[in-house]
Specification:
This protein has a domain of about 200 residues: Alpha-Beta Complex (Spore Coat Polysaccharide Biosynthesis Protein SpsA, Chain A). With about 375 residues, the protein is an alpha/beta fold. The N and C termini lie far apart (about 55 Å). The strands form 2 sheets. A 7-stranded mixed beta sheet has the order 3-2-1-4-8-6-9, with helices on both faces. A 3-stranded mixed beta sheet has the order 5-10-7. This is Glycosyltransferase. InterPro entries: Glyco_trans_2-like, Nucleotide-diphossugar_trans.
């Protein structure tokens, strides 16, 4: 009985924490109405860092080059590729004079370090506004560049965008990947609106060259091979300088992983980077994850034992109502409506996968940039 009392009161605390996150933080994005930004039309440098991405460049680069925007440059960074990446870049450059190629050769000090390659690309760019994406991404519309750049102004020097993954029919892994991406976006968009921006995704991210050089680039975390996107944003983003872009025109769409092993390796890199966030940011993310895990973990013995079952059912229903409302609104906003029916199953499975990944990272370090 004493053990069940402890579990019961712990469950009440956990549900309260979860509802507080949904009510006071995640609602800031879920119920946010889009505002039409004034067209910027300032010149932009689109930066794509590629390592062994010849086929992806052939497929996706035309979507960038066909953007409806008055003036932009595309900086293609070949990070010591071993395939035909450089040849493909040169083929495109012959047809499009807006392309600037930066061919990065390995150095002993920065071997295999994407941040070094990106730094060279940023230095070679000719425009103040920088928009980043990956070689396996395509803009969701011809107005991606215009929409992302419209959020820059005298106060806003960082723009966080949404990097979606392509939908694959009848694939549970694809739904899981997109749910995890949806949850991550809900978190970083919501915290940004709450005045606590802490990360962005390199698939769709923009900031000014001045912001980059004022922060001395990636030098503060150059020894950490991953995190060219989220660690940099964690370092420089503030309530005053950060904007978010979430209209469907501003999305990028990436090719998702097709096997659990590849996806787990990708997430291991991401999770290993998060431990380098500012302490306050780590604390708020850990508190959410632990409360999310404990909600399901504590619920099982309470339901089996039927201990105070009426209260447990009410608390469970209350938490799930907030969960569905917030994720329902967010999934519609970010064009992931097909996930709504599967939400609780995806959440439970993701929690288990994240726990597995965390344990794997304690045992061995994950691999980094290709």
């Amino acid at each position: 009985m004493i053990v069940l009392n402890i579990i019961f009161y712990s469950f009440i605390i956990v549900v309260s924490i979860q509802i507080a996150y949904y009510l006071f933080i995640f609602s800031k994005f879920a119920f946010l109405k889009p505002t039409k930004e004034t067209a910027n039309n300032k010149p932009v440098s689109v930066i794509v860092c590629a390592k062994n991405e010849a086929e992806n460049l052939r497929t996706f680069l035309p979507f960038i080059l066909s953007q409806e925007y008055p003036g932009f440059q595309v900086v293609l960074i070949n990070d010591n590729s071993h395939d035909e990446t450089l040849d493909v870049m040169e083929e495109f450059a012959e047809k499009h004079n807006c392309i600037k190629i930066v061919n990065v050769r390995p150095t002993e000090a920065f071997y295999g370090n994407k941040k070094y390659a990106l730094t060279l690309g940023i230095k070679a760019s000719k425009h103040e506004l920088l928009l980043f994406t990956d070689a396996d991404c395509k803009p969701s519309s011809k107005y991606w560049l215009a929409d992302m750049s419209s959020h820059f102004n005298d106060k806003k020097s960082v723009v966080l965008g949404y990097g979606a993954y392509a939908k694959v029919k009848n694939s549970f892994l694809n739904k899981l990947i997109r749910f995890e991406t949806l949850l991550t976006a809900l978190q970083y968009f919501s915290f940004a609106k709450a005045g606590i921006p802490y990360m962005g995704v390199g698939r769709n991210l923009a900031y000014t060259k001045e912001e980059f050089f004022n922060a001395n680039g990636f030098i503060g975390h150059i020894q950490i091979r991953s995190g060219d996107d989220d660690l940099f944003i964690n370092q420089v983003a503030t309530e005053e300088n950060t904007a978010i872009a979430f209209s469907k025109k501003s999305f990028t769409i990436s090719s998702p992983k097709t096997t659990f092993s590849d996806w787990i390796l990708q997430k291991r890199r991401h999770i290993s980077t998060a431990k380098h966030y500012k302490p306050a940011h780590r604390a708020m993310l850990v508190a959410f994850y632990i409360s999310q895990f404990l909600f399901w973990f504590l619920l099982i013995p309470l339901l089996i034992s039927t201990f105070n079952w009426e209260i447990v059912v009410v608390l469970t229903a209350l938490r799930l109502i907030f969960f569905y409302i917030i994720f329902g609104k967010t999934s519609k906003k970010l064009n992931e409506k097909d996930l709504i029916f599967f939400l609780p199953f995806l959440e439970i499975f993701l929690i288990g996968m994240q726990l597995t990944i965390f344990i794997k990272n304690l045992i061995a370090k994950p691999k980094t940039w290709k």
